[in-house]
Amino acid sequence: MAYETIIVEIADDVALITLNRPDALNALNSQLLGELASAVEEADASDKVRCIVLTGSEKAFAAGADIKEMADKSFVDMYRDNFFGVEADRFLRVRKPIIAAVSGYALGGGCELAMMCDFIIAADTAKFGQPEINLGVIAGIGGTQRLTRYVGKSKSMDMHLTGRFMNAEEAEESGLVSRVVAPKKLKDEAMAAAQKIAEKSLLATMAVKDTVNRAYETTLAEGINYERRMFQALFATEDQAEGMASYVEKREPQFRDK
Ligand code: HXC
């Protein structure tokens, strides 16, 4: 499909999706989020894709939802259209791993989009924030819930109430991002991580995503029970037999997603 606000490139089993509204610092409007939801759904369904990387420009991953698009909307508009709820739910249904590669601003909906990915790799220029408070509103695609789970209540309240930005160092220390690299290395680092994931059994990587995300949705005992059953279920796959045989035989595994 031809897209106008994102660029999709597929190479070596990885779909690289680049947000591409440079004049608006990749502000998320309805068109962009609709195209992004379609692109990740296509990647999820494609035999050529085993992992997805989502990135922006050097200056901005995304500077938030498009304020110019939202400014004149009424409650009725927002509620009737379920503003960004539809696109967010489509994005969250993707079963293959998604890595966010963040350089520059990841603000408001941009920070929330990064947190909807499975993990975040950041350039040392990255700035995260939930500045919706300055616009007289609050986060609207998961920020109050996800940031709190990533970094804890105190820091999350601080970010949402003051609207201040968090730099890459603070984001790494507080667990929001998994690694920080130099800006020039960001894409390579994220692609290398994605390619490493793409070498594994897709059944196992999807099971990891499903099971780790379960930790957000359930009690510890239920989550552990879910993990145990999922672990046991993977013994029904050929990839488990191949993975363990390759270890015993001291060779590389040949996973076939079966
Ligand atoms: C629309 C935006 C935008 C946004 C930047 N632009 N962010 N347009 N929506 N969120 C546009 C600017 O209007 C400008 O275009 C161009 O991008 C460059 O931005 P500048 O402000 O000139 O750049 P700079 O001075 O470097 O400042 C960068 C910035 C600032 C600090 C990121 O742009 C900024 O504060 N942006 C808004 C951040 C924000 O409040 N995000 C939260 C949005 S609410 P023009 O044509 O005007 O020159 C949200 C809610 C999510 O995300 C929930 C939804 C359901």
TrEMBL record:
MF (Gene Ontology): 3-hydroxyacyl-CoA dehydratase activity
Keyword Transport: no
PROSITE patterns: ENOYL_COA_HYDRATASE
Keywords linked to the UniProt accession: Fatty acid metabolism, Lipid metabolism, Lyase
Pfam families given in the database record: ECH_1 (PF00378)
Catalytic activity: a (3S)-3-hydroxyacyl-CoA = a (2E)-enoyl-CoA + H2O; a 4-saturated-(3S)-3-hydroxyacyl-CoA = a (3E)-enoyl-CoA + H2O
Domain of life where this protein originates: Bacteria
GO biological process: fatty acid beta-oxidation
InterPro entries attached to this UniProt entry: ClpP/crotonase-like_dom_sf (IPR029045), Enoyl-CoA_hyd/isom_CS (IPR018376), Enoyl-CoA_hydra/iso (IPR001753), Enoyl-CoA_hydra_C (IPR014748)
The enzyme's E.C. designation: 4.2.1.17
Similarity field: Belongs to the enoyl-CoA hydratase/isomerase family.
Protein role: Could possibly oxidize fatty acids using specific components.
Name assigned to this protein: enoyl-CoA hydratase
Species of origin: Octadecabacter temperatus
Protein encoded by which gene: echA8_3
